[in-house]
Amino acid sequence: MIKLTNVTKYYPSKLGNQYILKNLSFEIPSNHNIAILGRNGAGKSTLFRLLASSEYPNKGSIESSHNISWPVALATGIHPQMTGRENTRFIGRVNGVSDLDEYELSVRDFAELGQKYDLPVKTYSSGMRSRLAFACCMTVGFDIYLIDEATSVGDPKFKRKAKAALLDKSKQANVIMVSHDTEEIRQFCDSAIIIHKGQLEFYNDLEYAIEEYEKL
Ligand SMILES: Nc1ncnc2c1ncn2[C@@H]1O[C@H](COP(=O)(O)OP(=O)(O)OP(=O)(O)O)[C@@H](O)[C@H]1O
Protein backbone atom coordinates (compact mmCIF):
# COMPACT_ATOMS: atom_id res chain seq x y z
CA MET A 1 0.00 0.00 0.00
CA ILE A 2 1.08 3.56 -0.67
CA LYS A 3 -0.41 5.95 1.85
CA LEU A 4 -0.93 9.61 1.06
CA THR A 5 -1.78 11.68 4.13
CA ASN A 6 -3.09 15.25 3.80
CA VAL A 7 -1.07 15.76 0.63
CA THR A 8 -1.10 19.19 -0.94
CA LYS A 9 0.84 19.84 -4.13
CA TYR A 10 0.85 23.11 -6.02
CA TYR A 11 3.05 24.91 -8.50
CA PRO A 12 3.48 28.68 -8.11
CA SER A 13 2.60 30.62 -11.25
CA LYS A 14 1.86 34.18 -12.36
CA LEU A 15 -1.82 33.27 -11.90
CA GLY A 16 -1.19 32.28 -8.27
CA ASN A 17 -0.59 28.81 -6.88
CA GLN A 18 -1.87 26.09 -9.23
CA TYR A 19 -3.16 23.32 -6.97
CA ILE A 20 -2.87 19.76 -8.28
CA LEU A 21 -3.77 18.02 -4.99
CA LYS A 22 -5.29 19.72 -1.96
CA ASN A 23 -5.21 18.10 1.46
CA LEU A 24 -5.68 14.64 -0.05
CA SER A 25 -5.63 11.45 2.02
CA PHE A 26 -5.75 8.28 -0.02
CA GLU A 27 -4.47 4.70 -0.01
CA ILE A 28 -3.21 3.09 -3.21
CA PRO A 29 -3.65 -0.65 -2.69
CA SER A 30 -0.94 -3.23 -3.37
CA ASN A 31 -1.47 -6.40 -5.37
CA HIS A 32 -3.13 -4.55 -8.21
CA ASN A 33 -1.90 -3.37 -11.57
CA ILE A 34 -3.45 0.07 -11.65
CA ALA A 35 -4.16 2.46 -14.51
CA ILE A 36 -4.16 6.15 -13.67
CA LEU A 37 -6.89 7.79 -15.74
CA GLY A 38 -7.22 11.54 -16.03
CA ARG A 39 -7.61 14.27 -18.57
CA ASN A 40 -4.67 16.34 -19.83
CA GLY A 41 -3.36 18.42 -16.96
CA ALA A 42 -5.25 16.44 -14.29
CA GLY A 43 -1.98 15.70 -12.49
CA LYS A 44 -1.02 12.14 -13.51
CA SER A 45 2.66 12.90 -14.12
CA THR A 46 2.80 15.06 -11.00
CA LEU A 47 1.37 12.17 -8.97
CA PHE A 48 4.03 9.88 -10.46
CA ARG A 49 6.81 12.28 -9.49
CA LEU A 50 5.43 12.36 -5.94
CA LEU A 51 5.20 8.55 -5.76
CA ALA A 52 8.76 8.23 -7.08
CA SER A 53 9.94 10.89 -4.57
CA SER A 54 11.49 12.86 -7.39
CA GLU A 55 9.32 15.74 -6.11
CA TYR A 56 7.87 16.31 -2.66
CA PRO A 57 4.43 17.49 -1.59
CA ASN A 58 4.19 21.08 -0.32
CA LYS A 59 2.35 19.62 2.67
CA GLY A 60 1.53 16.16 3.96
CA SER A 61 3.36 12.87 3.53
CA ILE A 62 3.60 9.83 1.27
CA GLU A 63 4.64 6.55 2.85
CA SER A 64 5.16 3.07 1.49
CA SER A 65 7.01 -0.05 2.51
CA HIS A 66 7.47 -0.90 -1.19
CA ASN A 67 10.45 -0.26 -3.37
CA ILE A 68 9.01 2.03 -6.06
CA SER A 69 10.72 2.69 -9.41
CA TRP A 70 11.25 6.08 -10.94
CA PRO A 71 8.92 6.59 -13.92
CA VAL A 72 10.23 3.97 -16.37
CA ALA A 73 11.88 5.36 -19.51
CA LEU A 74 12.29 8.85 -18.15
CA ALA A 75 15.97 9.56 -18.47
CA THR A 76 15.96 11.16 -14.99
CA GLY A 77 19.27 10.63 -13.28
CA ILE A 78 21.11 9.68 -16.48
CA HIS A 79 24.25 11.81 -16.61
CA PRO A 80 25.16 13.08 -20.11
CA GLN A 81 28.92 13.22 -19.48
CA MET A 82 29.07 9.61 -18.29
CA THR A 83 28.98 6.58 -20.59
CA GLY A 84 26.05 4.19 -20.71
CA ARG A 85 28.08 1.68 -18.71
CA GLU A 86 29.10 4.24 -16.06
CA ASN A 87 25.51 5.46 -15.75
CA THR A 88 24.32 1.89 -15.35
CA ARG A 89 26.75 1.16 -12.53
CA PHE A 90 25.90 4.45 -10.84
CA ILE A 91 22.14 3.81 -11.03
CA GLY A 92 22.66 0.24 -9.83
CA ARG A 93 24.68 1.43 -6.84
CA VAL A 94 22.17 4.14 -5.89
CA ASN A 95 19.36 1.57 -6.04
CA GLY A 96 21.18 -0.98 -3.90
CA VAL A 97 21.84 -3.59 -6.62
CA SER A 98 24.06 -6.25 -5.02
CA ASP A 99 25.78 -7.68 -8.11
CA LEU A 100 26.78 -4.66 -10.20
CA ASP A 101 28.66 -6.74 -12.83
CA GLU A 102 25.61 -8.85 -13.56
CA TYR A 103 23.38 -5.76 -13.56
CA GLU A 104 25.69 -4.01 -16.01
CA LEU A 105 25.63 -6.99 -18.39
CA SER A 106 21.84 -7.35 -18.23
CA VAL A 107 21.31 -3.65 -18.96
CA ARG A 108 23.83 -3.78 -21.83
CA ASP A 109 22.04 -6.76 -23.40
CA PHE A 110 18.60 -5.27 -22.94
CA ALA A 111 19.39 -1.75 -24.20
CA GLU A 112 21.20 -3.05 -27.33
CA LEU A 113 23.43 0.01 -27.64
CA GLY A 114 26.39 -1.87 -29.11
CA GLN A 115 29.70 -0.04 -28.77
CA LYS A 116 27.87 3.18 -27.85
CA TYR A 117 27.43 1.70 -24.37
CA ASP A 118 30.98 2.92 -23.75
CA LEU A 119 30.45 6.41 -25.16
CA PRO A 120 29.08 9.41 -23.21
CA VAL A 121 25.29 9.55 -23.14
CA LYS A 122 25.40 13.11 -24.57
CA THR A 123 26.33 11.46 -27.91
CA TYR A 124 23.17 9.28 -27.89
CA SER A 125 19.96 9.91 -29.79
CA SER A 126 16.89 10.49 -27.58
CA GLY A 127 15.63 6.99 -28.44
CA MET A 128 18.96 5.50 -27.31
CA ARG A 129 18.82 7.47 -24.06
CA SER A 130 15.30 6.21 -23.39
CA ARG A 131 16.38 2.63 -24.11
CA LEU A 132 19.21 2.93 -21.59
CA ALA A 133 16.84 4.42 -18.98
CA PHE A 134 14.23 1.75 -19.65
CA ALA A 135 16.79 -1.06 -19.37
CA CYS A 136 18.28 0.39 -16.15
CA CYS A 137 14.85 0.63 -14.56
CA MET A 138 13.53 -2.77 -15.66
CA THR A 139 16.67 -4.55 -14.50
CA VAL A 140 16.39 -3.27 -10.91
CA GLY A 141 14.01 -5.53 -8.98
CA PHE A 142 11.38 -3.00 -7.91
CA ASP A 143 8.11 -3.96 -6.16
CA ILE A 144 6.16 -1.33 -8.09
CA TYR A 145 6.98 0.02 -11.55
CA LEU A 146 5.70 3.44 -12.52
CA ILE A 147 4.99 3.33 -16.24
CA ASP A 148 4.28 6.66 -17.92
CA GLU A 149 3.52 6.04 -21.60
CA ALA A 150 6.63 3.86 -21.44
CA THR A 151 5.77 1.50 -24.23
CA SER A 152 6.43 4.33 -26.68
CA VAL A 153 10.18 3.83 -26.13
CA GLY A 154 12.40 3.30 -29.16
CA ASP A 155 11.72 1.86 -32.58
CA PRO A 156 9.03 -0.78 -33.30
CA LYS A 157 11.35 -3.71 -32.54
CA PHE A 158 12.41 -2.24 -29.18
CA LYS A 159 8.79 -1.30 -28.40
CA ARG A 160 7.76 -4.95 -28.75
CA LYS A 161 10.62 -6.01 -26.51
CA ALA A 162 9.78 -3.31 -23.94
CA LYS A 163 6.14 -4.37 -23.90
CA ALA A 164 7.04 -8.03 -23.43
CA ALA A 165 9.40 -7.15 -20.56
CA LEU A 166 6.71 -5.03 -18.91
CA LEU A 167 4.11 -7.77 -19.23
CA ASP A 168 6.54 -10.16 -17.63
CA LYS A 169 7.21 -7.70 -14.77
CA SER A 170 3.48 -7.12 -14.25
CA LYS A 171 3.18 -10.80 -13.28
CA GLN A 172 5.89 -10.71 -10.58
CA ALA A 173 5.64 -7.10 -9.42
CA ASN A 174 2.94 -4.43 -9.65
CA VAL A 175 2.64 -1.70 -12.20
CA ILE A 176 1.00 1.69 -11.94
CA MET A 177 0.49 2.95 -15.46
CA VAL A 178 -0.39 6.17 -17.22
CA SER A 179 -1.44 5.68 -20.80
CA HIS A 180 -3.96 7.32 -23.09
CA ASP A 181 -4.23 3.99 -24.96
CA THR A 182 -7.20 2.04 -23.54
CA GLU A 183 -6.17 -1.22 -25.20
CA GLU A 184 -2.75 -0.99 -23.60
CA ILE A 185 -4.35 -0.31 -20.23
CA ARG A 186 -6.52 -3.42 -20.63
CA GLN A 187 -3.41 -5.44 -21.43
CA PHE A 188 -1.53 -4.41 -18.29
CA CYS A 189 -4.04 -3.37 -15.63
CA ASP A 190 -6.84 -4.92 -13.59
CA SER A 191 -8.03 -1.78 -11.79
CA ALA A 192 -7.82 1.99 -12.03
CA ILE A 193 -7.61 5.28 -10.23
CA ILE A 194 -9.39 8.26 -11.77
CA ILE A 195 -7.76 11.59 -11.00
CA HIS A 196 -10.12 14.49 -11.47
CA LYS A 197 -10.20 17.98 -9.96
CA GLY A 198 -7.59 17.08 -7.35
CA GLN A 199 -9.47 13.99 -6.14
CA LEU A 200 -8.48 10.35 -6.59
CA GLU A 201 -10.93 7.47 -6.76
CA PHE A 202 -9.97 3.78 -6.84
CA TYR A 203 -11.99 1.34 -8.99
CA ASN A 204 -11.53 -2.39 -8.50
CA ASP A 205 -13.25 -2.97 -11.83
CA LEU A 206 -11.21 -1.62 -14.72
CA GLU A 207 -14.04 -1.67 -17.28
CA TYR A 208 -16.32 0.28 -14.96
CA ALA A 209 -13.53 2.82 -14.39
CA ILE A 210 -13.04 3.26 -18.13
CA GLU A 211 -16.80 3.85 -18.56
CA GLU A 212 -16.83 6.40 -15.73
CA TYR A 213 -13.73 8.11 -17.11
CA GLU A 214 -15.24 8.38 -20.59
CA LYS A 215 -18.20 10.26 -19.07
CA LEU A 216 -15.88 13.01 -17.78
N1 LIG B 1 6.99 22.14 -13.03
C1 LIG B 1 5.78 22.69 -13.16
N2 LIG B 1 5.59 24.02 -12.95
C2 LIG B 1 4.38 24.59 -13.05
N3 LIG B 1 3.25 23.91 -13.38
C3 LIG B 1 3.38 22.60 -13.60
C4 LIG B 1 4.63 21.92 -13.51
N4 LIG B 1 4.43 20.60 -13.79
C5 LIG B 1 3.11 20.48 -14.05
N5 LIG B 1 2.48 21.66 -13.91
C6 LIG B 1 1.03 21.91 -14.07
O1 LIG B 1 0.38 20.95 -13.24
C7 LIG B 1 -0.79 20.46 -13.87
C8 LIG B 1 -0.73 18.94 -13.93
O2 LIG B 1 0.29 18.56 -14.84
P1 LIG B 1 0.64 17.04 -15.15
O3 LIG B 1 1.76 17.03 -16.12
O4 LIG B 1 0.84 16.33 -13.86
O5 LIG B 1 -0.71 16.55 -15.83
P2 LIG B 1 -1.03 15.18 -16.60
O6 LIG B 1 -2.31 14.68 -16.07
O7 LIG B 1 0.15 14.27 -16.55
O8 LIG B 1 -1.25 15.74 -18.07
P3 LIG B 1 -1.05 15.08 -19.53
O9 LIG B 1 -2.13 14.04 -19.71
O10 LIG B 1 -1.27 16.25 -20.43
O11 LIG B 1 0.34 14.53 -19.61
C9 LIG B 1 -0.88 21.15 -15.23
O12 LIG B 1 -1.76 22.23 -15.12
C10 LIG B 1 0.52 21.63 -15.48
O13 LIG B 1 0.51 22.81 -16.25
UniProtKB/TrEMBL annotation:
Keywords: ATP-binding, Nucleotide-binding, Transport
Organism whose genome encodes this protein: Thalassotalea fonticola
PANTHER family assigned: TEICHOIC ACIDS EXPORT ATP-BINDING PROTEIN TAGH
Protein family (similarity comment): Belongs to the ABC transporter superfamily.
InterPro entries noted in UniProt: AAA+_ATPase, ABC_transporter-like_ATP-bd, ABC_transporter-like_CS, ABC_transpr_TagH-like, Bact_Polysacc_Export_ATP-bd, P-loop_NTPase
The organism's place on the tree of life at top rank: Bacteria
Name listed for the protein in its UniProt record: ABC transporter ATP-binding protein
GO MF, one annotated term: ATP binding
Stored Pfam families: ABC_tran (PF00005)
Membrane-crossing residue ranges in chain numbering: none
